[in-house]
């Protein structure tokens, strides 16, 4: 995960959002973000869309890690 984030241009002190259900995938994602030197912005997939959109807009992460099952519900823009 860390190598993939670095290859995407994530640099130390960048913010990376993570929106996954609690479990092993969350731990792997968090450790990968930290190993890349970035900080993480935790997002709960159960949050209302408005709250997710506000948090993403306010924190301005450079990347977003998510599970395929929650991707359709995420308010992201290109």
Automatic annotation (TrEMBL):
Q: Which GO terms describe its biological process?
A: amino acid activation for nonribosomal peptide biosynthetic process; secondary metabolite biosynthetic process
Identify a single GO molecular function assigned to this protein.
phosphopantetheine binding
Task: Spell out the protein name for this chain.
Answer: Amino acid adenylation
Q: Name one GO cellular component term.
A: cytoplasm
Q: Locate the AMP-dependent synthetase/ligase domain: which residues?
A: 1-67
Short name of one Pfam family for this protein? AMP-binding
Q: Which domain of life is it from?
A: Bacteria
Q: Which PANTHER family match?
A: FATTY ACID SYNTHASE, NONRIBOSOMAL PEPTIDE SYNTHETASE
